[in-house]
Amino acid sequence: MEYFVQLSAIVWKDLLLEVRSRERIAAMGAFAVLAGVLFNFSIDTTAVRPQDVAAGLIWMTLVFGGLLGVGRTFHIESQDGAMQGILMSPAPKDAVFLAKVIANFVLLYAISLLVLGVFALFFGVDVRNNLGWVSLILGLGSLGFVAVATLFAAISTGTSMAETLLPILVFPLLVPMVVFGAGATGRLMAGRPFSEVEGNVRMLGAFAFAAVAAGAVLFRYVVEE
Amino acid sequence: MEAVLEARGLGRDYGPVVAVRSVDLTLGEGEFLTVFGPNGAGKTSLLGMLGGAMRPTRGSVSIRGETVSLSDGAWRRRVGMLSHRGFLYARLTAVENLRFYGRLFGLEDLERRIPERLARVGLADRSHFQVRQLSNGMRQRLALARALLHDPDVVLLDEPYTGLDPRAASVLRGVLTELRDGRRTVVMVTHNLKEGLELATRVAIQVSGRFAWEGVADAVDREDFERHYHQVVEDPS
User: Fold this and answer.
1) Could you tell me if B225 lies within 8 Å of chain A, comparing CB atoms?
2) What contacts A22, CB < 8 A, 6 or more positions away?
3) What's B205's domain CATH number?
4) What is the pLDDT of residues B171-199, one digit of tens each?
5) I need a surface site. Which of A175, B51, B208, B211 has the fewest CB within 10 A?
6) So what's the ipTM on this one?
7) Which domain holds residue B230?
């Protein structure tokens, strides 16, 4: 029981700070909208159908935009040494990690739905028939992404090259997520049935689960000096 | 007397630099150790290791017989630390900061405990101010309330008087005096000879990472201590 109280305290604190500062959500949201606008102008619609490339661009926007926000997840802790305060408390390290993942997931999932809306608007993508499944796929992708990015943000925060280091560490690990996520999203957007992408979704779920579990185990080795 | 806080051969290196050499320490209930020393003497590193915030390069620390490490342990509930930094969130109010740490420590009576602690450090009327709206002295007092919120057995204080105006220093002195209740073990590191001696039961002077001099506070000639301190710092051998 105490575990969940500690976990929820960190989730509450992270989300409350984000509501008050709006630093990360504003950066990610602005990036998502601007990326959608720029991608819209960058595509020659006489050569390719926007709907055919939308899925890949949605996932790229999610990955780059997500890194803007999730990469700063430990900056809010570093201002007055608060991370040390958390680490010196009896809260288990895996609870700290899971709380960070949950708070980041809430933010990124909201952004992923915004990205979907932006691309539906600019690329003429119609996902009304498969909205539930696409939302599930974006949710699983967001969860896997935040698990990997949160762990590596803990590693890179405090280094002199944090902003550069994080994408270099994270992007190679996200290849499976992008492959399965973009593949499934593209087919559903094309109106194909869910049964055709079920395998992709299972793999995406497995990736998210593995990333969360590995992060929960490894986090203590990252934050313990 | 039962040992509450024990350190054996405690040392810490930063690459080739030896910050803390080999500190042995045994403190019981009710003891208040003040560690004086010049900048770079290794006082903050010593405190970090005693509180489990920093891994020792050699030696060990235990609190009531339980070995202190960076990993989780019941001993964490017994330690309260006031560092150079307050561990506070600028956009949370004083109450929200304390409630957050109270929940991390699994405290159940926060509705009673938080107003009580805020009143004790003179911040009852600022309880719903965000930390960024508080002065440095108020933040320091709030950080002290945070450090003592869970009623720790061992209190570690790193230069607690730094940046405080006379009123804030007076409030802090009152709270620290209350810590001498015979139940707690306190280690304070400071440059401030007057404040440091006032509350101490034991005194040490740390130079170049080791205790160059130790004594019982009652036996210290307070008028003469400053001269003695400078002698020790200049010639620690």
Assistant:
1) no
2) none
3) 3.40.50.300
4) 888 888 888 877 889 999 988 888 888 88
5) A175
6) 0.88
7) 3-234
